[in-house]
Amino acid sequence: MKKTRYYSSFEDDFTTNAGQDYTIPESYKYIRGTGFFTNALYYFIALLGAIYLKLHLHLKIVGKEKIKKGENYFIFGNHTQPIGDVFLPALISFPKRFFAIVSPANLGIPILGKLLPFIGAIPLPSSLKAMPRFASALHQRFSEGYPIAVYPEAHVWEYMKDVRPFSDGSFQFPIKENAPVYSFTSTYQKRRFLKRPRMTVFIDGPFYPDNALSSRQSRADLHRRVYNTMTQRAGLSDIEYIAYRPMEKKTF
């Protein structure tokens, strides 16, 4: 029997860790080095991640050729793997390094959480006061030529075969940079002899901000195009390895 998880809202979090309540201090150092040591650490961990994705999830990436060589971009994906999604953008952006917007909870993960800022994690601030420093760090990394990865669903729903609704808030960043946007959609297919499905990721785009619209309108338009494309791609999943169902509302 397949596992079933019940949710009360799309904001429910099924994946937690010991440092789930980790918060980002206002003095947090957003810009870390990208010298020899951190680059070596990044590519070593990326290699381990690639091995995990290939052997454990039998990952196949379709459409990577759509990303223009040398182009800098933002890339949005659905969040369906607690470990694999840490490494997936590295395979997509290779040989370039990438940076990613992450939840502060990721930094609370024992051992790995301490390494994440050095291998590309840019955590969302825990207070509005720190938002300008966060936005400045994001702008600096993008200006330096690094792709920026975003998981707009925020929480991991492992093996979820559909794309959950998400806000258009994070689309303000590619609009500010007037940058192309790509999507990557994780889908799951049956395997002949094993219960665990294989993972196929589809890359689509580029999607460009419509500069004829206002900033708010452009954000909503970009969100609509990316979300609709991801939703269509999600239809290529042919297995529901873990089922997600809404909780029944009590009636009195």
Key descriptive features of the protein:
alpha/beta; globular; two-stranded parallel ribbon; seven-stranded mixed β-sheet; single chain; 252 residues; Glycerol-3-phosphate (1)-acyltransferase; 9 strands
Can you put this structure into words, describing what you see?
By secondary structure, the chain is α/β, with parallel strands linked by helices. The protein has a single domain, classed as Glycerol-3-phosphate (1)-acyltransferase (3-Layer(aba) Sandwich). It has helices at 36-56, 84-93, 112-115, 131-143, 172-177, 215-234; strands at residues 3-7, 60-62, 74-77, 99-102, 121-123, 148-150, 181-189, 198-207, 242-246. The chain has a 7-stranded mixed sheet with strand order 2-8-7-3-6-4-5, covered by helices on one side. β4, α3 and β5 form a beta-alpha-beta unit. The protein starts with a strand and ends in a 6-residue tail after the last strand. The model has no long low-confidence stretch (mean pLDDT 90).
Strand order of the largest sheet: 2-8-7-3-6-4-5
3D shape: globular
Give the integer mean of the pLDDT values: 90
Q: What order do the helices and strands follow? A: EHEEHEHEHEHEEHE
Query: Uncertain runs with pLDDT below 50, 5 residues or more?
Result: none
| Radius of gyration computed on alpha carbons | 18 Å
Percent helix, as a range, is: 25-40%
Structural class: alpha/beta
